[in-house]
Design goal:
Its cofactor is Zn(2+). By secondary structure, this protein is an alpha+beta fold. The strands form 8 sheets. An 8-stranded mixed sheet has the order 6-5-9-3-2-12-15-14, with no helix packed on it. Strands 17-18-19-21-20 form a 5-stranded mixed sheet, with helices on one face. It is globular. It binds O-methyl-L-tyrosine and zinc ion. Zinc ion (ZN) binds next to α3.
Length: 881
C-alpha cells in the first residue's frame, strides 16, 4: 500500500475548536465486571446547545459491542442510529435526551491499556481503567472530550471471591450482596468532571491506610492499594502523600475537598501515573519503595510523582483543560509544582541539575528535529503522541519563568485568582495568563509566544568592560531557528538571572543604568537585541548568566577557562556552579572532538576545579557528584550540527578517562571517607553521600581494572539497592570479568521482583559496547521479559534505542533494524509504546550521511508495514516530513 493512502486519523486543529453542541449533564454507569467480558450500562442525561438546534447527537465510542440502545426510555431501531468507526450518531434528537446503552467489552484482549484492561494474569490479576486522553470511549458511548463535565454515579458488580475490592472515584455510597456469590458497590462523584478522569479498579488488592486532616478541618481517608506481598513498600508513598497535602496547603492555600483519596499500584501501565479524581493509578515503579528494592533515585521519584498526581487535584482536575491543545496548562504547571515540592523537601540543586540535563538532552533535541512542536501544539492527529517533553518540561520552564517574573507573592496572587475564577471549569492557556496578569496589573500577552512558538531560542551574550568608566556593557541577542511549519519567529520575553564576581570569587554589585529592567538579579530581555550598562565595577567581572537556569534557551557566549573556574569554585547558586563545570567539560569535549592538539586550557581548568571541589568540606555532596558526572552521549551530541556517534563516544571516553586518571588519589580518598554512607538511611543527606560515593567508584572503574575489585566488594557489602545496583552498573559497563557472574547472581536474587528486574534489563541495554545489541536481542527471550509489559519494553528496548546511542547507531545498521522490527511487533500490542520507541528515529536528519540514509530507509520500510497503527504512522509521517 502506498503510505499516502494509509488510513490515519484526521488532523485536529486548534483553530477549528467549537464548544460542544451537546453536553452530558449526568452520567450513570453500571458494570458487570469480568476480565473476559464486561457488560457496561450507561445512562446519559444530555442537553443540546440551544444555539445549535441542527447539530446531530454524536457519541464517541470505539471497539464496543452495542447490545441495547434506548432513547428517553424506549428501545430504538437501527433506523434511528448509525454506528461509525469511532462513534454513534442518533438521528432526529433535539433539545434534551436520556440515552441508555448496554455494551460489551473484553478487558483481557485490551493490550493497548486504554479503557478497561487486565493487570497481571487472568486468574490472579485485577481490572483497572485508563481514560486519558481518549480511553473512555473504549469503555462506553459518551461525549469524550475534556470540556464536557458531569457528575458520575458508578455501580460496580462482580464476583466477590475473584474481585473482593471494587473501587471508583468519589464517595462510596452503598454496597450489598447479590445472589450467586456476587457483590456490588456504588460510588457517587458529585463534582462535575471530564470523562478522562473516570477510573475504576476491581480485584484482589490490599491496602495500607492513614488519614489527613485538612486545613479546613476535613478528615480525608487515605488508602494505598497493592498486592499483599509489597504492602510494606507503600509506606514511603504514604508519607509523600501526606507531605503533598500539607505542601499544597502551605504553598498555594489549596486543600483537598473529598472524603477519600485512593492510590492503586500496578505493574502494567503505559505511563508513570494517572490523576483520576479520588482514585489515582500508579505505575508500581513510582510508588513502591524500600531500601532493598528501590534506589535513592526511586525514592525521590516516588516523592515527585506522588506530589505530581496529587497536585493535579487543583491543576488539571478542578480546573481542567478546554481541549487537548491546552495539555500543558495542566501538565507544565503541575510539573513546575512537583519540581518545587521536591526542591523544598529534598535537594533543590540536584533536582534543578537533573531537570536541566534532561531538558538539554531530550527536549532540545525534540525542538531541533522534525517532531518539534509548540508547547501548545496547533494541530495533532494522535493526541497520545503529544505527551512529550516539550509539553511537560518546556511547559514547566515557562511557568518557572512567569514565577520568576512575578516573584513569590505575585505568582501566588495570580494562582489564587486562577483558582478562584476557574474552579469547576475547562479553560485555556489564555485564561491562565490573564489570571496571572490581572492579579499583578500586568499584560502577559507576549508570553503566549512561548506557548505558540516551537524551537529553542539561542541567547547570545557579549560583554565589554570599560576600565575608565568602570562599567560593563552586556549585549544580549536572541534568535530562534525555523521549525517545520513555522518559518517566522518572534522575539520572546527572556528573564536572565545574573551575578558578577571578581577574580577571587567575591560577589560584586549589580547596578544597571536601566534600573527598570533589572528586578532583583533578573534582567528581562524582550526584544531581539538589547544592551545593558552596569556601573561601579572596579575591574572586569566574571559574569554568571542564567543563574538557576532562568530561561530554557541555548546560551552562546565566549567562554574563558579562568572565568568558568572561578564560577565552578565560588558561585553561590549551586546550579550555576555545576553549569560552570559542565561548560568547561563541554569546551574540552569540543576540542577533543575537533582533534585539536596543544594546550587544553578547558580540560586542565576543569580537572583543577574538580580537584579543589573534592577537597572542599562545605560543598553539597549531591552537587559535587553531579559536577563529577560527565554529560552523557546524547547530551554532548545534541548541540552538534552533524553527529558521528563513534567520534562522540571516543571523545567522551577520553574526557572522562583524563578526569578519572588525574584525580585517582582524591577519588580513592573520598570513596573511603564516605564508607559509612551505605548503611545510612534514606534522608536526602545520606542519599547525597551515597550518590557521591557511587560516582567516585564509577570514575575509578574507568581508570583501572584494579578498581573492579573495589566494585565487587561494594556489591557484596551493599546494604541497599542503590549501592548494589551502582556497583553492578560499574562492573557491567566497564566489562569487568566479574560481570556475567554478578548479573546472574542479581537475577537470581530478584527474579520475582518485576521492578528490580527492570533495572537489570536496563543495565544491560545501556552497556557501552556494540555487543550489547546481541545481548538485548537474547534478553527478549528471557523468562522475565514480556512484550506486553510497558516497563519491560522501556527498560530493554527504549533503553537501547534512546539511551545507548553507540548501539542504536551501529554503523552496520543492525541497531536500526532491530528497533524497527521491535516497533512492528509492539505496534500490534500497544501502539502508544510502539510510537514512543519510534521517536528514536526522530533525530535522523542530524546524523552523518551514512547513518542518515539507513535511518530514513528503515523508517520508510516501516511505514509500508501492514496494519500500522495511527500512533506509529503519525510519528513516522512527521519524522520523514
Ligand atoms: N496525566 C498523567 C499522564 C498520563 C497520560 C496519559 C496516560 O495514558 C496512557 C496515562 C497517564 C500525568 O501527567 O501524570
Ligand atoms: Zn501530569
Amino acid at each position: 500500500m502506498n503510505p499516502s493512502d494509509r488510513q490515519t486519523h484526521p488532523l485536529v486543529r486548534l483553530r477549528d475548536y467549537r464548544a460542544p453542541a451537546w453536553r452530558m449533564e449526568r452520567v450513570d454507569l453500571s458494570f458487570d465486571l469480568d476480565a473476559e467480558q464486561t457488560l457496561v450500562e450507561a445512562r446519559l442525561e444530555l442537553r443540546q446547545d440551544p444555539e445549535r438546534p441542527d447539530a446531530e447527537l454524536r457519541l464517541d465510542g470505539s471497539a464496543l459491542d452495542l447490545l441495547e440502545i434506548r432513547l428517553d426510555g424506549r428501545d430504538i431501531g437501527t433506523d434511528r442510529y448509525r454506528i461509525e468507526a469511532d462513534g454513534l450518531v442518533v438521528c432526529g434528537v433535539r433539545g434534551s435526551a436520556i440515552l441508555e446503552t448496554r455494551s460489551r467489552i473484553r478487558p483481557i484482549a485490551n493490550t493497548a491499556m486504554q479503557g478497561l484492561y487486565l493487570s497481571g494474569a487472568l486468574e490472579t490479576g485485577f481490572l483497572l481503567s485508563q481514560c486519558e486522553a481518549e480511553g473512555f470511549r473504549h469503555i462506553t458511548w459518551s461525549i469524550d472530550r475534556p470540556d464536557v463535565l458531569a457528575p458520575y454515579t458508578v455501580t460496580l458488580r462482580a464476583d466477590r471471591e475473584r474481585y473482593p475490592v471494587l473501587l471508583a472515584g468519589g464517595g462510596r455510597e452503598a454496597a450489598g450482596e447479590l445472589d450467586d456469590g456476587r457483590h456490588w458497590v456504588r460510588y457517587v462523584d458529585p463534582q462535575p468532571k471530564p470523562s478522562y478522569l473516570f477510573a475504576l479498579v476491581a480485584g484482589r488488592l490490599h491496602s495500607i491506610e492513614d488519614a489527613y486532616t485538612t486545613a479546613e478541618g476535613r478528615r480525608v481517608r487515605l488508602a494505598i492499594w497493592a498486592e499483599a506481598a509489597v504492602l510494606d513498600r507503600c509506606r514511603h508513598a504514604m508519607d509523600c502523600l501526606k507531605a503533598a497535602f500539607l505542601w499544597d496547603e502551605q504553598t498555594y492555600g489549596r486543600s483537598y475537598r473529598l472524603d477519600a483519596f485512593h492510590i492503586v499500584a500496578t505493574h502494567d501501565f503505559t505511563m508513570g501515573a494517572m490523576e483520576n479524581t479520588g482514585l489515582n493509578i500508579f505505575n508500581s515503579k513510582y510508588l513502591l519503595a524500600d531500601p532493598l528494592h528501590a534506589t535513592d533515585d526511586d525514592f525521590r521519584h516516588v516523592l515527585a510523582v506522588v506530589g505530581h498526581e496529587y497536585f493535579h487535584n487543583w491543576t488539571g482536575n478542578r480546573v481542567t483543560c478546554r481541549d487537548w491543545f491546552q495539555l500543558s496548562l495542566k501538565e507544565g504547571l503541575t510539573v513546575y509544582r512537583e519540581q518545587e515540592f521536591e526542591s523544598d523537601l529534598a535537594s533543590r540543586t540536584l533536582r534543578r541539575i537533573e531537570d536541566v540535563r534532561s531538558l538539554w538532552r531530550t527536549q532540545f533535541a525534540e525542538d531541533a528535529g522534525p517532531l518539534a512542536h509548540p508547547v501548545r501544539p496547533d494541530q495533532y492527529r494522535e493526541i497520545n503522541n503529544f505527551y512529550t517533553t516539550t509539553v511537560y518540561d518546556k511547559g514547566a520552564e515557562i511557568v518557572r519563568m512567569l514565577a520568576t517574573l512575578l516573584g513569590r507573592e505575585g505568582f501566588r496572587r495570580g494562582m489564587d485568582l486562577y483558582f478562584e475564577r476557574h474552579d469547576g471549569s475547562a479553560v485555556t492557556v489564555e485564561d491562565f495568563l490573564a489570571a496571572l496578569g490581572d492579579a499583578n496589573a500586568l499584560d502577559l500577552g507576549c508570553w503566549l509566544g512561548w506557548y505558540r512558538q516551537a524551537g529553542t531560542p539561542v541567547l547570545e551574550a557579549h560583554s565589554h568592560y570599560d576600565a575608565e568608566r568602570r562599567c560593563l556593557e552586556l549585549t544580549l541577542r536572541q534568535h530562534t531557528a525555523a521549525t517545520s511549519g513555522q518559518s517566522e519567529k518572534q522575539p520572546l520575553p527572556i528573564p536572565v538571572a545574573l551575578a558578577f564576581f571578581d577574580q577571587r570569587g567575591n560577589r560584586l554589585p549589580l547596578q544597571c543604568d536601566d534600573a527598570e529592567r533589572l528586578r532583583g538579579d533578573v534582567l528581562l530581555l524582550e526584544e531581539a537585541e538589547a544592551t545593558f550598562r552596569f556601573t561601579n565595577l572596579d575591574s572586569s567581572p566574571v559574569t554568571s548568566l542564567l543563574r538557576g537556569y532562568s530561561a530554557p534557551v541555548r546560551l552562546v557566549t565566549s567562554f574563558d577557562a579562568r572565568g568558568l573556574a572561578i564560577l565552578a569554585s565560588h558561585e553561590t547558586d549551586g546550579f550555576n556552579r555545576w553549569q560552570a563545570a559542565d561548560a568547561m567539560a563541554r569546551q574540552a569535549f569540543a576540542q577533543l572532538l575537533a582533534g585539536e592538539r596543544g594546550g587544553q586550557p578547558f580540560l586542565e581548568a576543569w580537572i583543577c576545579s574538580l580537584r579543589a571541589s573534592l577537597a572542599e568540606s562545605a560543598i553539597e555532596p549531591a552537587t559535587l557528584a553531579e559536577m563529577l558526572t560527565v554529560a552523557d552521549l546524547a547530551a554532548l551530541a545534541e548541540p552538534l550540527a552533524e553527529i558521528d556517534p563513534d567520534a562522540v563516544f571516543k571523545a567522551r571516553l577520553t574526557l572522562e578517562t583524563s578526569l578519572a586518571r588525574a584525580l585517582e588519589p582524591e577519588l580513592l580518598e573520598s570513596y573511603a571517607a564516605l564508607a559509612s554512607a551505605s548503611a545510612e538511611g534514606t534522608e536526602p543527606a545520606a542519599q547525597a553521600r551515597r550518590r557521591l560515593r557511587n560516582r567516585c567508584l564509577q570514575l575509578l572503574c574507568v581508570v583501572d581494572r584494579r578498581h573492579h575489585v573495589l566494585a565487587a566488594a561494594h556489591y557484596t557489602r551493599a546494604s541497599c539497592l542503590s549501592d548494589r545496583l551502582g556497583a553492578l552498573t560499574c562492573i557491567v559497563h566497564s566489562a569487568a570479568s566479574a560481570a556475567p557472574a554478578l548479573l546472574e547472581e542479581f537475577a537470581a536474587a530478584y527474579r520475582d521482583d518485576p521492578t528490580v528486574m527492570d533495572k537489570w534489563f536496563a543495565v544491560q541495554a545501556t552497556m557501552p559496547s556494540a555487543a550489547a545489541l546481541e545481548r538485548v536481542c537474547e534478553l527478549t527471550g528471557h523468562p522475565a521479559f514480556r512484550w506486553d509489559n510497558p516497563n519491560k519494553v522501556h527498560a530493554l528496548l527504549l533503553g537501547l534505542a534512546h539511551r545507548n546511542p553507540i548501539v542504536f547507531h551501529r554503523l552496520d545498521g543492525e541497531g536500526y533494524r532491530f528497533t524497527a522490527a521491535a516497533i512492528r511487533k509492539l505496534d500490534a500490542i500497544n501502539p502508544q509504546v510502539a510510537a514512543r520507541l519510534a521517536t528514536a528515529f526522530g533525530g535522523w536528519q542530524r546524523m552523518e550521511p551514512r547513518r542518515r540514509a539507513v535511518m530514513r530507509e528503515e523508517m520508510r520500510r516501516l511505514r509500508t508495514a501492514e496494519n500500522l497503527s495511527a500512533d506509529v504512522a503519525d510519528i513516522l509521517g512527521r519524522s520523514l516530513g
